[in-house]
Amino acid sequence: MTSPLSQITQPKISLSHVYKSFQGRKVLDDISLDIMPGESHIVIGLSGAGKSVLIKCILGLLKPDSGTILVNGENWLELSVDQRLKRMACIGMLFQGAALFDSMPVWENIAFVLLRQGMAKAEAVERAEEMLEWVGLPGIADKKPAELSGGMKKRVGLARAICHRPEIIFYDEPLAGLDPVMSDVITKLIKRLHERMHVTSLTIAHNMKLVDAFSDQVSMLYEGKIYQQLSAAELRLSTDPLLRQFIEGRAEGPIRFSSEATDKADLNADPSQSRKSQTIFNKERV
Asked: Which of 48, 66, 97, 148 is deepest in the core (most CB within 10 A)?
């Protein structure tokens, strides 16, 4: 029988010696990482460093070349697609571009997972409207995504990510494409969500303001490896030249820049696998 202490100390997400390559280029090179229950973990790094690939591997949209990925203590790499789909109810996802369904009204976008789980329409609409209140967008349940601004779409995406009350939330560049004011709005919403719902989160971010406001632990990916893992406070005080260059956004420093073509290898490699992953992704969208 599992003791209460072991339940508390077991990581919510655990990666061990994960490798992933595209066309001979190691995008993830021996990645080991534990994210504890209730922890906000932010992954930073250059474009093309493998941050999105990391999340896709955890979700099963990409299969690692080797390694182990445990979610709630279970190896998701050993599960069938159907088994993984059943377990996806514990996960919410805020996509970089919101990824709303254009043909659906806002309320249906938000309640998409709940409807798939069999919730009655009236109850789903009520839950969606509750989530819209929470993100500061009352009264737009019947609008279509095309009628919304970028910031509104991002907040609707956040409402969808939390509507089914997940245990784990992934955020892929949640502030991308937003003006400074809306970036602050989204940052505060995410922080409030983390504090009130005690969810475990893994966030991909370039914005250091988000790191300061929202992170318990920060990992920097560099050349396929976790260069350093430290707290937000330790990151602010670090004198490491490579970290300082990234934090301060300077072109000069020890960071080596690969070519644009190489940076985008993980996006363009293996089109057949990408199409297959997209098919699974459409089923698993939460």
From this structure: 48
CB 138 within 8 A of CB 114: no
For 97-110, give one letter per residue: b (16+ CB within 10 A) or e.
Answer: ebbbeeeebbbbbb
Q: Interhelix angle for 180-197 vs 150-163, to 10°?
A: 10
Query: pLDDT (tens digit, 9 = 90+) per residue, 189-220?
Result: 888 888 888 889 999 988 788 888 888 999 99
pLDDT in tens, 265-281: 444 445 444 444 444 44
Sign, Cα dihedral of 251, 255, 260, 266: negative
- The CATH number given to 37-45+88-280 is 3.40.50.300
pLDDT at residue 258, as a whole number: 59
Give Cα separations from 220 to 46, 204, 215, 217, 282 (angstroms): 9, 10, 13, 10, 29
Paired sense of beta strands 217-222 and 40-45, if any: parallel
Nearest to 225 by CA among 12, 86, 2, 19: 19
Select the more confidently predicted residue: 228 or 261.
228
- Helical (H) or strand (E) element with 19: strand 13-22
Task: Single out the residue of 141, 134, 211 nearest to residue 171, CA to CA.
Answer: 211
Domain boundaries along the sequence of the chain: 37-45+88-280
Q: Which candidate, 110, 90, 111, 94, places its Cα nearest to that of 167? A: 90
* Cα–Cα distance, 258 to 245 (Å, whole number): 16
